[in-house]
Amino acid sequence: MNNQINVQSLIDASLAGGANVICEDDAKAILGGCGVPTVHEVRTPDAQAAARAAGQIGFPVVLKAVGSQILHKTEAGLVAVGLKSEAEVIATAERMQASSPYPIDAFLVQPKILGQREFVAGLFRDPLFGPVVMFGLGGIFTEALGDAVFKVAPLMSADIDAMFAEIRSQKLLGAFRGEAAVDREALQRILKGLSDLAMQFPQIKEIDINPVIVQPDGRPVAVDALIVTGQPAAAPVKRDEVNRATLRSCYYPESLVFIGASGTISKWGHMIPTNLLNRNFKGKVYLVNPKGGQVIGRHAYRSVTEIPDEAIDLAVVMIPAAKVMAQIPLLRQKKVKAMLLISSGFRETGPEGRQLEDEVVAAAREAGILIFGPNTMGICNPHIDFFCCGVHVYPRPGSTSLVSQSGNMGTQLLAFAEQQDIGIRAFSGSGNEAMVTLEDYMEAFEADELTRTVVLYIESVKDGARFFESARRVSKQKPVVVLKGGRTSEGGQAASSHTGALASDFRIFEAACRQAGIIQVKQPIEMLDLSAVFSSLPLPKGNRVAIMTLGGGWGVVTTDLCVENGLVLPPLSQDIIQRLDRMLPDYWSRGNPADIVGEHDPNIPRTAMEALMQWDGCDAVLHLGIHGRRILAAKMLKSIANTDPSYQHEDLDQLKAAAVQIEMQYIKHVVQLTEKYKKPVLGVSLLTDEASKTLYRIDGCRYKGVFFPSPERAVKALAGMCRYRKWVEANR
Fold it and tell me: I want to staple 471 with a disulfide (CB 3.0 to 4.6 A). Which of 22, 261, 423, 516 is the partner?
């Protein structure tokens, strides 16, 4: 920061005056002190002085009126570009003086800067994530086209490089219509300067630099600037971080008690205990019902205090909200570590419920009891057959940790994981997150060796800064996949600048996720598709894809999908073409996609697949229509059995079994090639049936066979892997 510019004194003066605006020339002085290249200008008190200054600068000039209440000069008719004489300057200044809706303090005279390209850079403070820097297409197109990207401050070099890569008009950064490529180092200094100002001066609310004109030699210069000040918003109340050891231990309880156990089907007090007891959970399980007696065929204690154990790890509470508080002293007496509070009727119901939730949390914290929920569907850990949740589905043990702020969404995801054989490391329905928050789960899974992928369904984030930092840290070690509910509910920004006007709640959330390395999806099925590939395949080293298909149409569709999702299809090398020529008919495609023309020899797709895997011109392989042919074979054999008596049923059954065997041998071959060449291979099934799965495990192999029912899902999953790999490389 240039010490000659007393930034804080200018901020204090703007606040004291009540207008909360720093005049343009002072704003440029502040920015210039941060390394932002600004236009030369002269401040003058009246029309006559402006004319003299214009003569000294040299025509044509730009004339601007400035004042403490003037935010957007162009809209108010207080900017004139290309004035060619002193007389024109005087006349224009007098017109502005007469017609301005705001008091004019002075006139600025600038040389007219030539350049065909205009960008905008800015800063504003988001209520969730804090200071956010913006960069995009500027000038009159700023809000009309909305081509802008956002990053949470403070910015790192990788963040700034990503901003240049993410704007749609990024081609304007290169050589353009005879003008030199933009000086990127100068642009980087502009964005870094905004980031530094945001972190150093919390009373700077917004900054708008629009336009930043790129001169023919590529040098950018800021010709207009606005700084809006204001008192910083009150910092959100920081929650106490939970004890990680206690949180983890709740997924490995040695003893637990169900408070509110019931013998009535459909009640939570029946659904969750029967779910747990239906499995082979090894821990001690106790039931509490105020009537005592037998519940679910087991002895029920009237109170938790009657249980003979001196200490209990986890209490699963399923009683009305109003009765929860009375349980806390009893749980404390039994040295309960944590409470899985299934009960609803708290914050989600309104002010009274919010107050009750706060009181329960305060009492539990004082008692040293960790609360999951309330209003949660439960947790599970398949690795110890621990299913303490309302949905009776049992995905196999795996490496995907799943947290859902919606119980229904959690139900759907767990059921799909079970159906498609996708392994789950742990699951939690986070509920109201009164004590254990999304960030706590994420940080716990960060340190968990069994977790390879973190999958989150999010409807709201309570602590944006902590969420961002946690996600960025976790993403450097393992992928984080997020589906955000309520993407189209855009909260309005009370903005004075173009920067703030371009922002929206979801747009900033999306930008923060991208910056933190999170892979965002738009549909629930994509969450588990990504968890499947991340848990089953090596990361691609690049975005070059080879496609092998049994049909030309599928290859064309998949090519389009690849291009639309940022993947590249390089042409086949002559060596690959010659190798495939030796096994395929003359009319095969000889290109990428490689159409192997539906030959029935099972050795052809195996040999072709290995040739593509060996090829150093691709980083991943998509294969279409080879898996699933057993289904067509079974249908054909059924028709033969029903119509042609010359074939014995035993012979047809053997042919059907052979088709299944050929398919399994192909899957095994693909997995072995994945192991050998360390490239991801994603399949698209020709047809699917009740026996079809997303993942196929091969004994002795680290990786798995991965098959999707459509090219869209396969391409999106591969594109997600490529985006994650690129982010990790940029943020090492």
Answer: 516
In a domain, 2, yes or no: no
pLDDT of residue 640: 92
154 and 106 in one domain? no
Burial of 114 by CB count in 10 Å (0-12 exposed, 13-18 middle, 19+ buried)? exposed
User: What was the pLDDT predicted at 587?
Assistant: 83
Tokens of 642: 């029903």
CA-to-CA distance for 199 and 32, rounded, in angstroms?
17
594 and 527 in a common domain: no
pLDDT band at residue 489 under the 50/70/90 scheme: very low
In angstroms, rounded to a whole number, what is the distance separating the alpha carbons of residues 349 and 333? 30
Among 229, 262, 296, give the residue marking a domain's end: 229
pLDDT in tens, 612-664: 999 999 999 999 998 988 998 899 999 999 999 999 989 999 999 999 999 99
Contact of 43 with 29, CB cutoff 8 Å = no
Least confident of 190-194, 236-240, 431-435, 528-532: 236-240
Domain shared by 496 and 456, yes or no:
yes
Same domain assignment for residues 484 and 617 = no
Cβ atoms of residues 463 and 398 within 8 Å: no
Q: Which pLDDT score, from 0 to 100, does residue 492 have? A: 38
Q: Which of 199, 229, 259 is where one domain is finished?
A: 229
In the Cβ-directed half-sphere of 110, how many Cα atoms lie within 13 Å? 23
What is the domain range of residue 571?
A: 538-730
Structure confidence at residue 589 (pLDDT): 86
C-alpha triplet 326, 329, 335: angle, nearest 5°:
135
Give CA–CA dist 12/6, Å, rounded.
10
HSE of 579, CA atoms in CB hemisphere, 13 A: 18
- Answer yes or no: do 550 and 511 share one domain: no
Q: What are phi and psi of 635, to 5 degrees?
A: -65, -40
pLDDT tens column, 75-106? 789 999 999 999 999 999 999 999 999 899 99
| Beta-bridge partner residues of 287 | 258, 300
Block residue for tokens 């779910």? 275
Distance CA 535, CA 417 (A): 13
Q: Output the pTM of the full model.
A: 0.90
Q: Are residue 403 and residue 499 in the same domain, yes or no?
A: yes
Which amino acid is residue 163, in one-letter code?
Answer: M
End-to-end Cα, the chain, rounded Å: 28
How many domains in the chain? 4
407-419 vs 524-536: helix crossing angle, rounded to 10: 50
